[in-house]
Amino acid sequence: MSDRFETPMHEALALARAAIGLTEPNPRVGCVVVAPDGRVLGRGHTQQAGGPHAEVMALRDVAARGATARGATVHVTLEPCAHHGRTPPCCDALIAAGVARVVMAMEDPFPQVAGQGAARLRAAGIEVIQGELADAARELNIGFFSRIERGRPWVRLKAAVSLDGRTALNNGVSQWITGPAARADGHAWRKRAGAVLTGVGTVLDDDPRLDVRLVETAMQPLRVIVDSRLDTPPTARILDAPGSVLIVAAAPDPARRAALEARGAQIALVPGPTGKVDLPAMLADLAARGVNELHVEAGHKLNGSFVREGLVDEFLIYMAPRLLGLGRELAAFGPLQTLQDSLALRFVSVTPIGDDLRLIARPASA
Q1: 1 and 8 in contact (C-beta within 8 Å)?
Q2: Residue 129: alpha-carbon gap to chain centroid
Q3: How far apart are CA 163 and CA 324, in angstroms?
Q4: Rounded mean pLDDT, 311-325
Q5: Cα–Cα distance between 294 and 153 in angstroms, integer?
């Protein structure tokens, strides 16, 4: 094991983190193969969808080093798969390799695995140990667990705000409240997401690209526009950026739809009873498309709708040390009559990023 890591599972988690921005919609998994004397024989992490999983990559690394995994202990951040998908079962590869023990952080919630991988390993005489660093492993794949267990992505709402909680001046100007380090960090969180979402108001006001540019990534997230009436102009820069664009509308407009589809956009009709997009139904649609984490970068009105409907799982807030006075709020909802009606949050972390602070908070009830 590398001296940089406390245990092989810590190293496996680091390998899994290296798979961020690569494996969607599959989970990020890392694997370390350790000899009985403690030497690391091989390492690997999951590749792109349809490519080898972490265990196979680690076994290939063992072979490339001229070693054997027979009698070794395999440390993996998620239960080895037990089904034929785009790749053969990983548990079969481990059994064929003759490993003696598998230490897995946690069970895979995917119905075609869900304990079956561990059961097949035990049936082959391999010792299986579960639970080491399970919380960290779940956090790394929190969107995957959300999609499989709840049928909807993990919704992360990102905003840059001033110390007095404003996201823009009264006239709408917002570039740039935070500094370059915070903006680059925000792109790293975009990279984590299967999709980045905004509203048509932001498209019309700011003409954003919403792609990942400030950090390296192997793939671009799907970009989603909530646009009830298909008001997105075919000249919008978001349609020029690399990757796919999905526009979610509430009402059909054949002419506008044809113009946007001619620019490469996909259109999904998800109408709600008020004539606007049904946000919960949209989340179910995105889950069906394989989106694990949804990164919301929208204006105060759409943010308010997400908050009001109880759809935000996590707030990612960059706070700048400046005051803007009158201006636009983070999320327009309410007004509330009592403090008891407020959305209570708990801080998960508070981290300096350049001259700014990154605040991560989740509903206190979660």
Answers
A1: yes
A2: 27
A3: 8
A4: 95
A5: 6
* Per-residue pLDDT band at 232 (split at 50, 70, 90): very high
Q: Could you tell me where the DSSP H helices lie in 48-197?
A: 54-64, 90-97, 116-123, 134-140, 142-150, 180-192
Q: What is the DSSP string of 73-92?
A: EEEESSPPP-S-SSS--HHH
Residue 105 CA to residue 93 CA, distance in Å, equals: 19
Strands across the sheet containing 30-34: 40-45, 30-34, 73-76, 101-104, 127-130
Q: Which residues pair with 198 in a beta bridge?
A: 225
Give 261's contacts (C-beta < 8 A, 6+ positions apart).
267
Cite the beta strand spans of 258-313 per DSSP E.
266-269, 293-296
- Nearest of 93, 117, 92 to residue 104 by alpha carbon: 117
Task: Please report where in the chains the tokens 């998800």 appear, as a residue.
Answer: 270
Please name the helix (run of DSSP H) or strand (run of DSSP E) that holds residue 200, with its range, or none.
helix 200-206
Per the structure block, which two tokens stand in for 4?
A: 């940089």
Distance, first Cα to last Cα, the chain: 36
pLDDT tens across 131-188, in order?
A: 999 999 999 999 999 999 999 999 999 999 999 989 888 777 777 889 999 999 999 9
Residue 14, φ and ψ in degrees, nearest 5: -65, -40
Catalytically active residues are 55
Taking CA atoms, 118 is separated from 18, 31, 53, 70, 240, in Å, by 25, 15, 16, 18, 46
Cα distances from 182 to residues 153, 299, 352, in angstroms, run 24, 18, 9
Q: Which two tokens stand for residue 305?
A: 């709708």
How far is Cα of residue 304 from the mean position of the Cα atoms in its chain? 21
Q: Where are the beta strands (DSSP E) in 193-242?
A: 195-199, 222-226
Put simply, whether the predicted model's pTM sits higher than 0.90 gets the answer yes
Task: Tell me the per-residue pLDDT of 43-98, one tens digit each, with 9 for 90 and over.
Answer: 999 999 888 999 999 999 999 999 999 999 999 999 998 876 667 789 999 999 99
Q: Which residue has the tokens 């044809």?
A: 258
